[in-house]
Amino acid sequence: MAITAADVNKLRQMTGAGMMDCKKALTEANGDFEAAVDILRKAGQKVASKRADNTVSEGIVLINVSSDGSNGKLLALACETEPVSRVESFRNIAGDILAVAVKENSSTTEELMKAKSADGRTVEESLVELMGKIGEKLEIVGYENVSAEQVVSYIHSNGKLGVLVAMDGVAGADVQELGKDVAMQIAAMKPVAVDKDDVDPRQVEREIEIGKEQARAEGKPEEMLEKIALGKLNKFYKDSTLLNQEFVKDSSKTIRQLLADKSKSLTVKTFRRISIGA
Q: Which option is the CATH number for 5-50: 2.30.30.240, 1.10.8.10, 3.30.365.10, 1.10.3720.10?
């Protein structure tokens, strides 16, 4: 059957796909709009498969903190190139996905990908379809859902790095400004854990072994290696665990001391840091 310009435009309005793609899909589907939409979706799946190994180093980070401040959700949607990260459809779908995460209170990326948006499609289906239109790999490279007495957020000026800080022991204090300082500390200093006891035991063992090898390479006696390595481990804790780090705005105090100055009961329950392309 003859495919008219009006038909092509109608399918384009329905899907957002390019004019030539819509004409080709309609021709293949013999004018059946539903079949044409399926063809375009399949094209998206082909794009997803073809570009599966491509690097995604651009994108956008979005955050939602509940009105009472007790929950925060952090989403990072990545693409291949910077121009696509600025396309309205890309930014819209990122916002839509975050809205689904809030509505469904998704716990993991896997749950979020299976969750359905208002139009009945899953997040995964929507992403695949947009890949077909844009022609780039799109991927949720990070999703976090945290709860505490007070959650404070920070998004870096480049829009590609976000932090959630979950704090307990607030005791009614206003911790927004302090929480923002702590979040910026996490963004800049990349701590691996809140405190010493939160560090992965495998990483602790690795740091000890590295310390021993460094000392051995320096010609230190074998009987001194363990002691030297433990000293290096303490330096690692100071540099790499949040509460023991020096506050970047005032090196005379640690983050632990900064929190104590506000309230003796105040502490960081957990934090999440997501960065695209770094």
A: 1.10.8.10
